[in-house]
Amino acid sequence: MADRSEFADFVAHRSAPLLRTCFLLTRDWQLAEDLLQSALAKAWFAWGRVDDDPEPYVRKIIVNTFASWWRRRWTGETPTEALPDAGRPDPTGAVDDRDELWAALGRLPRRQRAVVVLRFYEDLTEAQVAAVLDVSVGTVKSQTSKALARLRVDASLSTHPVLNGGTS
Fold first, then answer.
1. Tally of domains within the chain
2. Helix (H, G, I), strand (E, B) or coil at 112
3. Predicted structure pTM score
């Protein structure tokens, strides 16, 4: 089996069953892929010595390679009682809060949503919002009050600190 094109055919047709064997040995898909790749690399170098049925030969390489991995002592991580570094807060929390707030704003009636957006996102004064919406300042105040009240009782925002008296 000295022809390297036969090796390519073997890899194309037998990689899936060999990968399954690797997975059964390692119980981890990434390690199984690494094991198969290592075994196939070793088989490629010995391909000229392989007889007509290469699969048992490659399976033996897989098992021997796995055994050498298992025997080899890996010192990349060592267990300790105390963690060596402090964890970082989840940076996606702010994005989640923003998404929840946008969804809650979408549930407001259009006029209340417009008032909240213009007042708090566009930072307009009550008089400027009244001019944009062509309503009285009193209407802006009452719509703002109603909108904030609805947001405070919105179930998806029940833990939001800003809407529930917090400062964050």
1. 2
2. helix
3. 0.43
* 3-state SS, one letter per residue, for 77-88: CCCCCCCCCCCC
Does residue 166 have a pLDDT over 70?
Answer: no
**Per-residue tokens: 111:** 């006029």
Token pair belonging to 14: 């037998």
| One domain for residues 22 and 56 | yes
Residue 1 buriedness (CB in 10 A; 0-12 / 13-18 / 19+): middle
Question: Is residue 40 situated within a structural domain?
Answer: yes
**Does 50 share its domain with 115?**
no
CATH number reported for the structural domain that contains residue 111 in this entry:
1.10.10.10
Domain region containing 25: 1-71
* Alpha-carbon distance values, 66 to 5, 55, 91, 123, 145 (Å): 26, 16, 39, 64, 67
For residue 133, give the amino acid letter.
L
C-alpha angle 30/33/34, rounded to 5°? 90
Buried b (16+ CB within 10 A) or exposed e, 13-51: eebeebbebbbebbeeeeebeebbebbbeebeeebeebe
| Better-predicted residue by pLDDT, 69 or 7 | 7
